[in-house]
Amino acid sequence: MSTSLLCHTFGLTDQEYRKTEYKGGTVIFHIKTKDSKLRCISCGSRNIINKGTIDLLFRTRPIGLRPVYLNAKVQRPECKNCGLRRQERLKYAEEKKLYPSNS
Questions:
Q1: Mean pLDDT in each 10-residue stretch from start to end of the chain (103 residues)?
Q2: Which distant-in-sequence residues (6+ apart) come within 8 Å of 7 by Cβ?
Q3: Is 80:67 a contact under the CB 8 Å cutoff?
Q4: Which of 27, 53, 62, 103 is most buried, judging by how many CB atoms fall within 10 Å of its CB?
Q5: How many other C-beta atoms lie within 10 A of the C-beta of residue 66?
Q6: Whole-angstrom Cα distance, residue 91 to residue 95?
C-alpha cells in the first residue's frame, strides 16, 4: 500500500519504502533510494560503494488534515571509477537548498 502511495501520489519511483511512522498527528514515510538506482553523480557509473548516510526530513503535501513528511536516508556513494565521493542527487529536492537533518 505505502509503496504504491509514494509512487502514484508523490512520484517517487526510485525510492524504496521502509516504514511509516505516526507521531503527534503527523505521518512520516521513511524512504531510501533503491540500490539499483544509485550512480556516480559525475561519471554515471554504477561501480560505487556506500560511504555513509544521513537522514533528511522533507515536508510534502498533506493527506487529509494530516501533515506528511518524508524521512529520506540519503546515501554518500564513492565511485570506484573516478574516485568522487558525494551525496546522491535527489530528484524530489532542490540542489544547494538546506534541509534539516533528522539525526
A1: 77 90 94 91 90 91 92 93 89 64 58
A2: 13
A3: no
A4: 27
A5: 10
A6: 9
